[in-house]
Amino acid sequence: MTFSQQKSSKDYASLGQKVYQYVSDRSLLQLTKDIFQNGFPLFRRFVALYFDKNFDKKYNVDTCGSIHLHELTIPDKGNIESASIYDPAPAQTVRKLFSYLPSDLNNYTIIDFGSGKGRVMFVAAEYPFRKIVGVEFASDLHEVAVDNISKYKNSKQKCSDIESVCADAMKYEIPEDNCIFYFFAPFKQDVLQSVIDNIKQSYQKAPRNMWILYITDPVTHPTAFEIIRNSGIFTQVRAEYFPFEIAQRDKLYYEIYKTN
Questions:
Q1: Which helix (H) or strand (E) holds 135?
Q2: Helix (H, G, I), strand (E, B) or coil at 70
Q3: Nearest Cα to Cα of residue 216 among 172, 191, 193, 182
Q4: Model-level pTM greater than 0.85?
Q5: Is the pLDDT at 28 greater than 60, yes or no?
């Protein structure tokens, strides 16, 4: 039984699931009429989910929905208090971030910490990365990602080496490759500190090119970027809010770093 089947049988009552069902049953025109009177923030939330649904339909995957931790199966609950809900970034937002990366992507492995159902992995597959890895500690989200990998269809796919790993981010062993690390505010400062420490240790053993792409909603997920800056191996190369995009649920901010 897939996670999608499981969640339908558990009668989840989270707002995210209710909104997802609401969006799934309506056209964009109906959504616009239904929610315009409720204000622009809610309008953006629903329209974002509409675009998410279209992404899944186009590529034959299931990456939609906001899912709270209490709805998930997490084998190692040691860091559960430091984790965030599953809520994937809009595909176009990720593509915008990727536009700032170096041109020789075939020399890089990209690693998405807190990869969930794999949305970023499938956007990354449109680029010529050497390998794509998602690290997710919720086993049911990981299982959906594995199923998505087997079903994913995209005529523009440029990387076919895609892997989802079910693991605690703090225990994940950093590969000895040129790496790009992607974070969409997946956990709090304690876990981020541990992950950055692991990255630093790996770099010190084998110096190589590394990048960090970090997205956050600074209002609800303020992040101590000094953890990255104080690592001693990364230099900030770009930092700003994303341009307005209707598919974004909230105003998102990003910072990009690369090794010295």
A1: strand 131-136
A2: helix
A3: 182
A4: no
A5: yes
